[in-house]
Amino acid sequence: MLIITIAFLQSFILTTNQQQYQVQFKLTSFGMTFQYPNISDLYSVQSNVFSTIHCTMVCSIEPECQTFDYDISSNVCRIFSIWSYQGTIVASTSSTSLVGFVEQTIGLYSLYRKPCNSSIDTNRYLLCTSDNLWSCRAQLVYNGSVCQSDVAYSYTTVSYQQECLQNHTMVWNGTSCSPVVATSLKWNATGITVAGVTAISGSTPDKLYQPWGLSIDSNGTLYIADSHNCRVQKWLRGAPNGTTVAGQPNGTCGYGLSFLSTAQGVTVDANGNVYVVDTNANRVQLWSYGASFEPKKDLILGTRSDPF
């Protein structure tokens, strides 16, 4: 079996550092072709490639290419984004076709778990993860020497479990190492009432009357603009009742500074101060944290008089 080694000097953009790495290919004898399991594994097909060396160079300069096949009669070079063992090398109908594939050696993985810069660093064999450490690429795990497909290696010891946990593209399921699968999130089919009583309005602490807007803080506490009760209710997560923090607890509406008139928007700042859009009173009011229901509130925008 023929071995071709190509060395590259890759410059990293925006840095003065350079990383030299080798791409070592093995070539089969003539009369062979590569079968791939999925159409997406075929990275590209190039025609008018006039030598095996040329096809090898095409693969070597493309970091995603791990395997290629080439027919010297048709001058067609096909490059694949999977390793040779992830497909099958089989006999070809053409006697002038051969397969080349990247050979994994220990030296190619010498950077594993060493620092990198995820915004600029690239490598054929390793992936620079968000924690700025070189890790194995997707669906591969480090076996102590090279990054290898989980299908081709048995992970039965604690050390291999730890290697799997270090690889951000894989997940340990308790017995083996598996690729991380992106989850398609969906809304629940049914809702859960977290404030008020379904289909029943009222002004008691456990009820709301046409709530119009809300704000939520980092603790999951809701601040609800209870519009027809002319108040803002603070509703702790899981609580059966709300607490009035702006307006009158009994739902009385008005234009004085201790009242609201159809509150339709609310926001709360980091200090717990409540800002209320008091629609029918044409104003925005600030209700300071811990304020009582006396007329000591601050008018932020609008006028103190009744709307006309």
Q: Which SSEs are present, and which pair or pack?
A:
Blueprint: E1 2-11, E2 18-27, E3 32-35, E4 42-46, H1 52-60, E5 67-71, E6 76-80, E7 88-91, E8 97-102, E9 126-128, E10 134-136, E11 140-142, E12 147-149, H2 158-166, E13 170-172, E14 177-179, E15 211-216, E16 222-226, E17 231-235, E18 243-247, E19 263-268, E20 274-278, E21 283-287, E22 298-302
Antiparallel strand pairs: 1-2, 2-8, 3-7, 4-6, 5-6, 5-8, 9-10, 11-12, 13-14, 15-16, 16-17, 17-18, 19-20, 20-21, 21-22
* First-residue to last-residue Cα separation: 93 Å
CATH topology of the largest domain: Hepatocyte Growth Factor
**Portion of residues in helices?**
under 10%
So what's the overall shape? elongated
Contiguous runs where pLDDT drops below 50 for at least 5 residues: 6-20, 152-156, 304-308
Instruction: Give me the CATH superfamily of the largest domain.
Output: Hepatocyte Growth Factor
Overall tally of structural domains: 3
| Overall average pLDDT | 79
Tell how many strands the DSSP assignment holds: 22
Report on the biggest sheet. 6 strands, antiparallel
Order of helices and strands: EEEEHEEEEEEEEHEEEEEEEEEE
Oligomer: single chain
Query: If helices are DSSP runs of H or I spanning 4 or more residues, what is the number of helices?
Result: 2
Q: Class of the largest domain in CATH? A: Alpha Beta
Give me the Rg, rounded.
33 Å
| Fraction in beta strands | 35-45%
CATH architectural group of the largest domain: 3-Layer(bba) Sandwich
